[in-house]
Design goal:
Helices cover 38% and strands 16% of the residues. The chain is built from 8 helices and 6 strands. Helix 1 runs antiparallel to helix 2.
Length: 249
Amino acid sequence: MDKATAERIDELRRLIEHHNYKYYIEDDPEISDLEFDRLMKELQELEAQNPALLTPDSPTQRVGGQPIQGFREVQHAVPMLSIDNTYGELEVREFDARIRRLLGGASVEYVVEHKIDGVSASILFENGKFTLGVTRGDGSRGDDITHNLRTVRDIPLRLLARAKVPEVLEVRGEVYMTNTELSRLNRLQAERGERVFANCRNAAAGTLKLLDPRQSGRRNLRFFAHGEGRLSGLDIHTHIEFLDLVRKL
């Protein structure tokens, strides 16, 4: 093992994560699929030749894990509460009035986001590395689904330093499946004589319950970030600041 090989492996990992970000997050790919596959193949070959340099956060390890025996329950450090909904304008106005009363007349700004119908999950990064993924569960405890979330390409295994990386960053959001992916999956399920899914949410939930990450990795789940759990090593004062940070990372 030489220094040049180690540097090339690190460079390839950063390039691959960068191009994953451009493709999956910004929808603005800079290279062709063929060029991307060549980068991945080179990295796989170098890691195979230098196993001492293989790390869990390498892009090659997204779908390479072994099946687990069962799900481990994890305590949420910060309770993961559900979000209230409403279907009428009057309730929205009443909510706004309550907020203004609580703030004693201070100015109020709202952040409006898309509602994605998926499975709530929390993902934890420690010193820039993805270390844990947990379902909401009952709000206090959830299932450890790290093995399956590692296969979701919206979730970086290592944060890129587009902004200062917090020591601890817990991001909450929805794991979901697109309509296009559901149609593709259901065709395959039907051809195999297996159960088809009624909707995208059921498909996402069923995929996260799989014990084998190689199976879940073939189902192309996505992740939509919308909230904060824990954050240390960085001062964030508003929700929009948090979303801007997540977008940059």
